[in-house]
Amino acid sequence: MITSSMGAHGAIFVLARGACIFLILIFAADKTISDAKTPDISNILRLLFEPLKLSPSAPFIHENGRTVVLPPNPRYTNKMGKDILILDLETRRLNSTALYEKGEYDWRTIDRVSGGVFAHYAYAQIHGYDYKFIHVTEFKDRHATWIKPSALASLIKDYKFIVFLDADATFRFMQLPIEWLMNYWDVEPHHSLVMAKDPWDPKEPQYNSDRFNRTYTNTGFMIVQNNKQVMPILKAWHECPDDVRYPNCSQWKQPKFHEQSAFGEYIRYDYGEYIKELECGQANGFPGVEISHCQGQFIRHYWFEKAFVKLDYIENIMNAITHPIQKIFAEEEHAIFNPEEEHFALSTE
Hints:
This protein is an alpha/beta fold.
């Protein structure tokens, strides 16, 4: 159990009384779910995406045909593998698991939570990252999303980076490694947390803004770096609703946007130089959102139309599956059908 009673110098801090506890570590990236007769899904995913994957410093051709070139002298040139954790935290049991246990699993009927989690797991396998799905209980006195700072604090000591995503957030291009994205966003060693801004509408300036009219950052996608400032930040964030350091932070125990509002109202003002804020369009939102051009260029977050998280996953997987099929048609088309070598005649009898 995690409580908030430990001092600031503890390796991790634990949740206060009545808070959420970690229940089940469902699986990690190195656990195989296959038997001796079935190929390991991790190897299948890596094999499928191998022709598509980019190195951390390579140019990227966007789906619109535009070549995206990284800034000069990229910082992350080597793949970090298991030093990066892709993390899911859920209070909900996957509905797909219940269907599977009844022998009724069908991709077409599973919900968007399973779809999002599957996409995160697949992404970790493609790039050789570690992965954890942690099932947690509900808090007694605050919204379930308050688990984020304490969970991150419990895990960050074992990794260089943790990448957390809500179930309705996903990677637009699964062939792009996190190292490439961090190069593109110029994540520096002193950055403890990386988040994208929320959309901001001048017609409704009070929405998605803090008390100083500054746009909130969204905690549905975060990159957390293991550096000397990350634990003090996470501790302050975790303790915020107990009014230990920030009076009135308890107002965000239940009302929207919970831990996100608390972070925006208080935490980032004490640790601003260690927080990297991305523009909304980079890592938040989805196609069709006109406000702030928040259309999820690299990370999509479907606050509405949540079922589309499955569509993004489908498009990525189908791109990988059909790529080798296209290779066959490109290189061996004559073996499939060559009109100069085949002779077809209509019988006039």
